Amino acid sequence: MMQAVYIKADRDVEVDRTDIRIGDVIQIEGTDKRTREQICRLPLVTVSCTDQKKESRMCLSILQVIRKIHTAFPQLDIVNVGEKDFIITYKKEKDAGKFLHVLKAAIVVLISFFGAAFSTMAFNNDVDTVKMFGQIYELTTGKPSDGFTILEITYSIGLILGILIFFNHFGKSRSGTDPTPLEVEMRLYENDIQTTLIENNSRTESGSKNKGADYVDKGNHAGSAGT
Fold first, then answer.
1. Domain limits at 117?
2. Can you state the percent helix, strand and coil of the chain, rounding each to 5?
3. Considering the entire predicted model, what is its pTM?
4. I want to staple 145 with a disulfide (CB 3.0 to 4.6 A). Which of 56, 137, 166, 169 is the partner?
5. Burial of 86 (C-beta count, 10 Å sphere; 0-12/13-18/19+)
């Protein structure tokens, strides 16, 4: 009876070493601990020298992993319970200081703050919010507005509270366990990127195979014509 080994690959795996082993990117489960450890140490791919100075990505098929395992252990029955195609992201390990992280975070916060403030002011100016509030205040109280009334105050407070409640994220605190709208959009964007990378890789491989098949077919026709 063949021994079954279960393998699982996540859709995107990040590594910081150039000589990538199967255990670095694949989760392996089986009854024989020694076999699992040997499979984990099997070499899978190597990051090229040109890609070691920057972040690089490569798409692999789970069939390549199964082929590597079967070459070393032909008697094993490999069962895939994860992704059929997955992405390996290589990032060179950097020892960035705490000050640099704080500086980057501060820059992002400032850009987001002033960008959001400009967008809000542009919207208020476009719809003439001040004039509208002045008309509402004068209709309800019979007095002209000086531009700083209860309407402007409540509008400013409500705008801040609305943003905080909608995005459900203020510092480390949040209400409930559901992901925030921002987290959902980030995951959707990340999923779209991964899908595009995998599909582009599949098309590239299919194109290469088709070109090879056409070349062989033309060679056969030429041989037949010569005969």
1. 98-172
2. 60, 20, 25
3. 0.64
4. 137
5. buried
